[in-house]
């Protein structure tokens, strides 16, 4: 069961909030995609609800880590809602303006995950396909139940998974990414682990529990330091080697001057538990 017993519609986010549930526990926010009848497809409403909730979490100092899960369904997320997309083909421009806006809003939401100060963990129990696979790849970490599967199947319906490609190609080796994109074939959780798309594979039904344990380890660290490190990780990975070292050196020197670094080093030398700010 992936939906927490205490999960509630994301508060004060408008009529679309019921497509996304949020439950906070011990400094960890659990966001649950809640469209099981539509295979948790990323509808307009769900993309917007995720975007708004990520903004709220970014400003919430009580939250130290985030888990993205889904309501029980055949899919963690089946990607974009093809019924919504097809309905716009009758627009005067055959849907062009809507498609560009949709993909832009989805890309912005995925980038909010990357830019969020708190680490984000995907907890996947079933099939993550197309933009659903993109969502998993956009998260900082991923835990998969052993029955989870992943694919970018756009080529089967004449639609190359170009936007999922961006996140996927930044997680796995180029030839693995190309094989998934060119064939559209589904890979098992064990293969996703081998390829680097997920961090851990656990018994089916235990992905959220395992993600919570991982989140608890992360939440025990200094939140400001984790935020600095996460941002620096994504900044340096796009740089050349020399520029990456120069940037990381500047970040680390600044970090050394922070209160939590002084406290952490002092605690280590004094053989005591650090008291984070």
Automatic annotation (TrEMBL):
Name of this protein: Enoyl-CoA hydratase domain-containing protein 3, mitochondrial
The entry's keywords: Fatty acid metabolism, Lipid metabolism, Transit peptide
GO terms of biological process kind: fatty acid metabolic process
Cross-referenced Pfam families: ECH_1 (PF00378)
Job description of the protein: May play a role in fatty acid biosynthesis and insulin sensitivity.
InterPro entries: ClpP/crotonase-like_dom_sf, Enoyl-CoA_hydra/iso, Enoyl-CoA_hydra_C, Mitochondrial_ECH-domain
Keyword flag Transit peptide: yes
GO MF term list: hydro-lyase activity
Gene3D superfamilies xrefs: 2-enoyl-CoA Hydratase, Chain A, domain 1, Lyase 2-enoyl-coa Hydratase, Chain A, domain 2
Coiled coil location: none
Family: Belongs to the enoyl-CoA hydratase/isomerase family.
